[in-house]
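Budget justification note: compute hours in this period were largely spent on complex prediction jobs such as the one shown. Inputs:
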Amino acid sequence: MGTINSALSIISQALDANQQALNVVANNVANANTPGYTRETPDWKENQPLNENGNLIGQGVSETGATSQRDRVLLTRMDQQQQLVSSTGSRLTALNTLQALFTVDSGSTSSKAGDIGSDITSFFNSFSKLEANSTDNSLRQGVLSAAGTLAGDISNAAASLNEQRSALDQETSGVADQVNSLTSDIAQLNVQIQTTSPTGDAGTLEDQRQLDLTDLSKLVGINQITSNNNGLAITTTSGQLLVSNGSSYTMTTGLVGGVTDFFVGNTDITSQLATGGGSLGGNLTARDQDIPSAINSLDQLAYSISTAVNQQNNAGTDYDGNTGTAANPLNIFSQPTTVAGSAASMSVVMTDPNQIAAASLGNGTGDNSNAVTMAELASKGIVNGETPTNYYSNFVTTLGSTVSNVETENTAQTASLTQLQTQNDALSGVNLNDEASSLSTLERSYQAASKVFSILNTVMASVLNLGEQTTVS
Amino acid sequence: MEQQAEHGQHPLLKELVIEASQALARLDAERLEELALSCQALNRDLARLDGDARRVLVPQAKDAAKDMAVFARVLEATRSNLDVMNRLRERRLGQLEYRAGFGPEWRRTESGHGNN
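Corresponding output:
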């Protein structure tokens, strides 16, 4: 009888276990489209065998619960990759806006900031034209007109850059509230997880915490440290504590030097956040590094051109026989006192074309030798040792190179994140054989891609070094 | 292929590189293996082309240089991901082969050291 009862018991428990397993599967299906949901697999436990007259009789299996198929190492790596993608993504958006200012629009001859490169050439060419007939009023007027176009385009570009910086500042200031909301949620989830599931996976609670971590990673760079009883501490990548188990630390903002800085307690963590990652990191890098660098370059250009041209005009004699003095300088451009702010304030102050000092000091008004010297400024290293045209050209090239590098990084990081997501999806709720298959696909893809890269590299090197034979494989 | 090159019907190098990057991002091993074969064929054809025919590809190669940089970075990221996934796999397998026992909390089974 014992045997029959045991057999019935085994069947009954197996049916119960299967029913519970079906519930787990049903739960998986029902939540298939729930963001952040991690698939669960049933846990089976062998029941203690019965000892019947020295014979051990199996008691079948019971289902003891369900375990979410999550891998913390992989999820943490995905979060880290997400931080990089968000950082380069937001920086790239800002850089593209910045670059558009200096890129000639399609179907047009100028960019949003005009065409400063051509303006520089036109301005110094106007002195070359004046050389031919230094007493011609229309040619003198042409110099002032070209100066006005150059000054206008540089000051407009500086104004646009300052506007962009303000807009980015506005955008970043709102991130603190989003971060605080997420860190507060995570702290509360920590308490629930530590209370309800201190030793095992907490299922949907951990799904929710992971979703918050992913959202937080989109905003800022973070480190995750697991603590006792399934708790979690979160710091910025530089180590500033944001969450410790059930406590969250509020991020606040304040104006420092006209822009929004970020604080935890009394510590200003703005520069740490800029290098840490997330969209905030990318936007702060654009706000505090890329845009100021562009403004500095324009300031240097404006300062150097204004100073060199004004000095040279004051060294000559104008059409009315006057020479510039400290009290009454013959300045074409407003004379900046410092490099900073020179671009935004660049303007033409000369209104009378007769004040252009085409003649050298002591020569008659028909002389053109100072106009020749002014025209020659175009080929002199008056801007940090470079000619104005080369300086501007290098600035635009450097900006383009930065955009290109960030674009490359963003594309590669996005691809890497896609791969990790694919691997994570393949990992959830599958057995070790399926997992091996997924890993094998990754390995195969890598091997094949290495081969493609190697051959293309050979092909391109061969094509670019004409005459060299290619390796036939 | 040679004829195609003369008539400009080769897929542009740039397109090849971009497609390889995209296939690698989505871990499309089959497509990458096809591309590897195509690249081998291209390389063989290229060896047979004369100087003029090869010169046609120079602007293409220059045009594709930036995308090659992207491809190189995706490849590097994949290598890194592969390392992580291999370490995870080893850890999982290790957990199967370790079990609670006497003395040390974990001990390696015989199959682990290959003496069985």
